[in-house]
Amino acid sequence: MAVGDKLTMALAHTLNLDGTPDTGYYIQGARKILADKYEYIMHGKLYKISEEGSGKAVKAYVFKL
Questions:
Q1: Domain boundaries along the sequence of the chain
Q2: What pLDDT shows up at residue 55?
Q3: Is 36 helix (H, G, I), strand (E, B) or coil?
Q4: Which of 26, 6, 3, 8 is nearest to 16 (CA)?
Q5: Hey, CA dihedral for 19, 32, 23, 48, is it positive or negative?
Q6: What are the φ and ψ backbone dihedral angles of 36, each rounded to 5 degrees?
Q7: Looking at 1-65, which runs of residues are DSSP E strands?
Q8: Residues 49-61: pLDDT tens digits?
Q9: How far apart are alpha carbons 39 and 43 in whole angstroms?
Q10: How far apart are CA 28 and CA 36, in angstroms?
């Protein structure tokens, strides 16, 4: 990333757009999911979030599963 670039990050319990729990199975293209809106997704367990300074910087720590 470069200075001035924008980053959007979503933390979600499910990839289903209606908020229903995931079944644990992913079938590509079967239906629209939250991941379709992003270039990169990661699955893991979030264990810490911290803000720095004025709150414009956030660190999210994830155990990648």
A1: 39-64
A2: 64
A3: helix
A4: 26
A5: negative
A6: -65, -20
A7: 44-52, 57-64
A8: 787 777 677 777 7
A9: 14
A10: 10
- Phi, psi (deg, nearest 5) at residue 27: -115, 110
Give per-residue pLDDT as tens, 10-41. 888 888 999 999 887 777 777 888 888 898 88
Other beta carbons within 10 angstroms of residue 41's beta carbon come to 13
DSSP string, 2-57: -TT--------S-SBTT-PPP-S---TTSS-BGGGG-S----EEEEEEEEETTTTE
What phi and psi values does residue 11 have, to the nearest 5 degrees?
-110, 125
- Determine contact, residues 48/61, Cβ cutoff 8 Å: yes
The SS3 of residue 64 is strand
Rg (CA), the chain: 14
